[in-house]
Design a protein that fits this description.
The complex is a heterodimer of chains A (293) and B (350). With 293 residues, chain A is of the alpha/beta class. Chain A contains 8 helices and 13 strands. In chain A, helix 2 packs parallel to helix 4, helix 3 (108-117) runs antiparallel to helix 4 (131-143) and helix 4 runs parallel beside helix 5. Chain A starts with a strand and ends in a 14-residue tail after the last helix. Chain B has 350 residues and is mainly alpha-helical. The longest helix of chain B has 38 residues, at 2-39. The chains are: A alpha/beta (293), B mainly alpha (350).
């Protein structure tokens, strides 16, 4: 299938600060994409550009085959903004009515069904809802638009663990029921681990790695063994992260080939290890734990 | 879109138009009473009852109407115009509303048409009430054209309302905060309104000049009827401007009342016939200013320097690069303390 989001040399500058630098990205359709990175890495910038809220400074960006234009109507893309804003003066029912009036593709049955399943009171004002309910309402408005692509910018960042779980469960149900691609950002890997099958790691305004989760996990290996000289490692290993003690080296290595050297104990990599390794630059104090815990 | 605009605007609209309705009731009752008094006097000069409006029982009503008509454009500018976009920015809801299947231009167009029209309508109704209420007084005193009164009669307040609304809209778009936008609206509107009233309006057309015999006293001519007089300079018989007229009982002319013979007065003025052209010119001027500002808002909202994404969050410390080997080379870590079977520690952020 075609890419739902394609970026080429995409950059964004606020004043003197580059929020996103030279971003090349191609996100295939039908996936649940996790966009991870520390706060300030450029996740929101990328997503806001994808929905036309921000114009790029440089580069090309195509979403669903169209270049998002600032100010234009956004068709085909549902967006849940950071902090999941809702109108505090409007009731839940008003929000649905708003969505119905502003979107020709609106699915009222879907919206009603979600609201009743979430046990939201339609007459309740947006400002009186809990954080989790506000997030669910924002998601409902975005989903009932029946988008091809659903973009969520840190939707669970401010939610408590229970609301977080419920929100992500709701999202998984939507993905299961509808043919929709999802791009979801978070600075916590744990949020994404359960829902995503495609991963993009954004660090310091650059894309560090992007790819299918299973593929990434299969090509990355966590090695531990006696202290090794870094210069003598096999050439086809890409060392993402290394930490050494006097006697031991722990490496996170990217290699398409299985690791055969018996001096290394090989562990499977967890998604969290992978992301943390890419988020920390090169060698460091980071201790990777492997997949089995 | 119209539904949403009305839904978000209805509280403000109810307050303003509800207030106007209450005021209308009082205006009609007192206005009819004034008309009864007015019908009792034949010649304008004889109508002491009406001239006494200012000192009569109606003085509170007069102050109320003058004040309300004067400030209503500023109020609607501050409470209709300023929050229109600024509140969306403040609550972050612009990121929800601008990502629906409706373009920003259309969203803004409906908002401006509905809310802006309401602002103009409110001031129009207010001015209509005031003009009607003051009708008998105005026709008696013929001072509708004079400075402050001009701006609270007939169509001019509608121009002011349109302009104040546009100032509020623009300030809200630029500041993205409701309170600073409201304050800016008040200051900018009052400043422009005062400059126009004191400097610009008198230049809409070259003033006329008329010279005639000078007749002092309350019954003497005050210049051309109903006109807006800038100066009424008195000249002595030899044609020199007079600063002060000084005659004493000792002067011979006092006896035969001929002291002022040969004195003339020169009026510089805008004639009453220019009242309506001036009303339309002033209204048009403010409407054009308003249209320029609204046009700017449409241009700006379509992607020109729109705000950064999201609330400003403190940048959390990313896992920091730290070369452990350097530490070991410097022998800062105790050798041998770490066994081959390195304990699995939790990573950063966990």
């Amino acid at each position: 299938m075609n890419a739902v989001l394609e970026a080429e040399g995409l950059s964004k500058r606020y004043g003197r600060r580059w929020a996103l630098t030279d971003c090349d990205l191609s996100i295939p359709a039908g996936r649940v994409v996790g966009l991870v990175g520390p706060n300030g890495a450029g996740k929101s910038t990328l997503l806001n550009m994808a929905v036309g809220l921000l114009p790029p400074t440089e580069g090309r960006l195509d979403v669903l085959g169209r270049t998002p234009k600032a100010g234009a109507a956004l068709a085909g893309v549902g967006f849940v903004a950071q902090g999941t804003p809702v109108y505090s003066g409007l009731s839940v029912a008003d929000h649905l009515r708003l969505g119905k009036h502003l979107n020709p593709t609106w699915d009222q049955a879907l919206a009603d069904e979600r609201i009743s399943r979430l046990r939201l009171d339609p007459s309740q004002k947006g400002g009186k809802l809990s954080g989790g309910q506000q997030a669910q309402l924002a998601l409902t408005v975005a989903v009932a638009k029946r988008p091809e692509l659903l973009v969520l910018d840190e939707p669970v960042a401010s939610l408590d663990p229970l609301a977080r779980r419920e929100f992500l469960q709701g999202l998984m149900e939507i993905v299961a029921d509808q043919e929709v691609s999802v791009v979801l950002s978070s600075h916590l890997v744990a949020d994404l681990e359960r829902v995503c099958d495609y991963l993009v790691v954004l660090v310091d305004s650059r894309v560090r790695i992007a790819g299918d989760v299973d593929e990434l996990l299969a090509t990355h290996h966590l090695l531990s063994g006696p202290f090794h000289d870094m210069d003598r490692l096999p050439r086809d290993w890409e060392v993402i992260h290394a930490s050494h003690t006097a006697r031991q080296s722990t490496l996170l290595v990217r290699s398409d080939q299985p690791i055969l050297d018996p001096s290394w104990a090989v562990d499977r990599v967890s998604m969290e290890d992978l992301v943390l390794a890419y988020m920390s630059t090169g060698e460091g104090t980071l201790q990777l734990t492997g997949a089995e815990r | 879109m119209t539904w949403l605009t009305w839904r978000q605007f209805r509280t403000q609209a109810l307050v303003v138009f509800g207030g106007l309705a209450l005021l209308a009731v009082v205006t009609i009752i007192t206005g009819l009473q004034i008309r009864q008094l007015a019908s009792g006097c034949a010649a304008p000069t004889d109508c002491s009852m009406l001239v006494g409006i200012e000192t009569s029982n109606f003085v509170w009503m007069e102050l109320l109407l003058r004040g309300a008509t004067l400030i209503l454009p500023a109020v609607t500018g501050m409470f209709f115009g300023a929050p229109l976009i600024a509140r969306e920015f403040e609550t972050g809801t612009h990121r929800m509303i601008w990502t629906q299947s409706v373009s920003r231009s259309r969203w803004l167009a409906v908002k401006v048409l509905v809310v802006g029209a309401a602002a103009v309508l409110a001031s129009g109704l207010m001015s209509w009430m005031t003009t009607w209420w003051f009708g008998p007084d105005d026709s008696l005193q013929m001072d509708k054209f004079v400075d402050a009164t001009f701006g609270i009669r007939d169509v001019a307040p509608m121009g002011y309302a349109a302009f104040a609304f546009a100032v509020g809209l623009t300030a809200g778009l630029l500041f993205r905060r409701v309170l600073p936008a409201m304050a800016t609206t008040l200051v900018a509107f009052v400043a422009v309104r005062m400059v126009v009233q004191m400097v610009v309006r008198q230049r809409f057309a070259a003033p006329l000049v008329v010279t005639g015999a000078f007749t002092p006293g309350p019954n003497g001519p005050k210049g051309p009827n109903g006109s807006w007089i800038f100066s009424g300079q008195i000249f002595d018989p030899s044609g020199h401007p007079v600063r002060e007229l000084r005659f004493g009982p000792g002067d011979a002319c006092v006896a035969n009342n001929s002291c002022l013979n040969g004195y003339t007065q020169r009026f510089v003025y805008q004639p009453w016939s220019r009242y309506w052209p001036f009303q339309w010119t002033e209204t048009g001027l403010f409407v054009v200013l308003a249209l320029i500002l609204v046009g700017f808002c449409f241009w700006w909202i379509n992607g020109h320097r729109l705000p950064g994404s999201g609330p400003r969050v403190a940048r959390a410390a990313a896992p920091r690069a730290y070369d452990e080997r350097t530490a070991h080379d410097g022998k800062t870590a105790p050798r041998g303390a770490v066994e081959t079977n390195q304990p699995r520690l939790m990573g950063v952020d966990r």
